[in-house]
């Protein structure tokens, strides 16, 4: 509890102090993670040349689609840090007068980051398989990275891997908090928050040009979750409450990515039709890539409802809560948008009537 609160406080503090410092720290943590995964990969490759017996049994385990999907959503949650780090680019001042410069960087940085992540994760998992292997009879709760360190260096290796995982998690949380503070500001500016509180979150802090109120809101929200985890530990309410929140969060993110891909597809089709059936320069990504991406996300969203062979039947609760929140958000958006449309129509009607009255008065 104390460690998590201290990490949240440190992340919030340096992000409140300076955007530049926050960018540098976040990118430094990414570089540290890349170096760490490279070292693990090299160790695994070196070990593979000596002993590859674990690879003889790794594919003997029965295929479990539900377990695979459950593990996949946790892997995708770890990628959110890599994903959010791309949005830090807009915080840097471009060295070119070209207004499209940041978007060009974001385009190629996204492709490069996905490629680097895929290669590193592939090699890292290969290293884990080589050193740790797969034991169907293992019932312990020790994560594979810690078992990897223990196999190589004993208790010292387990402690070392625990520290590296903690630093990696610190970087992931830092990047997510940075991005979500911007989302809070955008939600306040576009009317997705109640009017009584939206005015609090629409501006930067004048002293350091940072999002002080948005970052503090996230800090207290995460602090509340930390207290929930503490209560869980003290009274032994549930051993899987952290997984519950993680799954609900990432499943909502998957729905968001699916909606974004669908909206991108609609925009692409409209631009294509208005551009004489040729590929427009704006949103130049091929439409088949969008469709493929959308189908993959839809498949993941559906497959997650398939139960694991050894799992409990309470697994879909977090996903159902995510869908409930999404549906509630859509309903609220539709009601608010409907009121705005009606208000706009009334304003247009009043304007037309005023113009008619003025024109009639002019004729008289």
Cα radius of gyration in angstroms: 25 Å
The tally of strands reads 0
Mean pLDDT: 76
Shape: globular
Helix tally equals 11
What is the first-to-last residue Cα distance? 79 Å
Poorly predicted residue ranges: none
Strand content: under 5%
Helix/strand structural class: mainly alpha
Query: What order do the helices and strands follow?
Result: HHHHHHHHHHH
Major sheet: none
Please estimate the helix content: over 70%
Protein name: Amino acid transporter
GO molecular function, one term: L-amino acid transmembrane transporter activity
Organism: Gigaspora margarita
Membrane topology: Multi-pass membrane protein
Quick structural gist:
Helices cover 74% and strands 0% of the residues. With 364 residues, the protein is an all-alpha fold.
Describe this structure in words.
With 364 residues, the chain is an all-alpha fold. It contains 11 helices and no strands. The radius of gyration is 25 Å and the shape is globular. The protein starts with a helix and ends with a helix. The model has no long low-confidence stretch (mean pLDDT 76).
